[in-house]
Amino acid sequence: MDTHLSAEAPVAAGSPGLPRLSVVVTVRNEIRNIGALVESLLGQTLAPAEILIVDGQSTDGTLEVLRPYAEDGRIRLISEDCNIAAGRNLGIRLATHELVAVTDAGCRVDSIWLEAIGRCFASAEAPDIVSGNFRFDVQSPFEQEVIYATYMGDREDSYVARYYPSSRSIAFRKAAWAAAGGYPEWLYAAEDTLFNIRLRQLGYRFAFCRDAIVRWRPRETWAQVWRQRFNYGRGNGRVGFGVRGYSTNIRYHLAMLLPLLLTPWTLLGPLVSLGVIAVHVRRHLWAQAARGWRETGRLATLLRVLALMEWVRLAGIVGFLRGRLDRWTDPGIAARQREWMGVASVEELPPDGL
């Protein structure tokens, strides 16, 4: 079941008409922005019943920022050497309420974020999972181009928005989290994707809440974009998610590269490569990049977005191949996934289970 729900007029904090929600946050070395996140959570129109922050043993002063909030009882602070999935599971396990909202450091939440989520849970549809929404804090032309390159303009109306919420903005019933086995702690990336798939596999009901907005800043440099997309690809390769899409990208890029090997003997190779590049751009890149051109009126934006989209694809391919290598060299990855969700790879699930 999927629905789109919106918040109505704001209500006073602690309104008896809305459910109480615990909020769980994971953080590590986020001294630049952790204060803004905590203040945004404390300023909600629907006050959190509790705020649990799991710090992965930060070394940059993040803990020193958080301790005063913990000392006066505004947050519960847990410091544990753990990855993001284990940190989320720890915080959710300690939460004292059935409904749990999750976000991450590096973000800040709009003032009605929790209220909007509460209204979704209180609606007649009574979902088990509320897929939150997000926006970006863009601070440079490059960051805006990253958005054009990595997110479709119709994202909020897409299947992805409904069924694959980022765990920067999600809420669920604690019973659903427990039935799913929590977040998969053996994954460094793609842990929230696999968690979403597991919840769908178990038949839980999703609702997309358009007004439950979390904001974060896009990646600021080419290197940061590469690392992010490499990690996404590696995580997807490990769990077998999106194999068809990655395979298509690999075939196109091989078809671009291999004909160039004929260059010493004939011009046919470069011509074939140019033809494949043209088809690739037209089928996979142009429509999305052209949005940036239309909205900014700058040809330079189109060219940079095209370059970024290709950069993202190359990073994803390299990461995906590394993830497949991880599965091959460490059979325990597939074994843990089979134990956790009954199949060793997402590829084994029926299409309607994705």
Distance N to C terminus: 13 Å
Task: Tell me which CATH architecture of the largest domain applies here.
Answer: Alpha-Beta Complex
Question: How does the helix and strand content classify structurally?
Answer: alpha/beta
CATH class of the largest domain: Alpha Beta
Note the main sheet: 9 strands, mixed
SS elements, strand count: 9
Beta-sheet strand percentage? 5-15%
Radius of gyration: 22 Å
Tell me the overall shape. Answer: globular
Order of helices and strands: EEHEHEHEEHEHHEHHEHHHHH
CATH homologous superfamily classification of the largest domain: Spore Coat Polysaccharide Biosynthesis Protein SpsA, Chain A
Percent of residues in helices comes to 40-55%
Low-confidence stretches are: 1-14
Mean pLDDT: 91
Figure out the total of helices: 13
CATH topology of the largest domain: Spore Coat Polysaccharide Biosynthesis Protein SpsA, Chain A
Q: Can you tell me the number of structural domains?
A: 2
Question: Please, could you describe this protein's structure?
Answer:
By secondary structure, this protein is of the alpha/beta class. It folds into two domains: 4-216, Spore Coat Polysaccharide Biosynthesis Protein SpsA, Chain A (Alpha-Beta Complex); 222-353, no CATH class. It has helices spanning 34-42, 62-71, 84-94, 113-122, 141-150, 159-163, 174-180, 191-201, 222-239, 243-257, 268-296, 299-329, 332-341, and strands at residues 4-5, 21-27, 50-55, 76-79, 99-104, 107-109, 129-136, 170-173, 206-216. Strand 2 (21-27), helix 1 (34-42) and strand 3 form a beta-alpha-beta unit. The chain is globular and about 75 Å long.
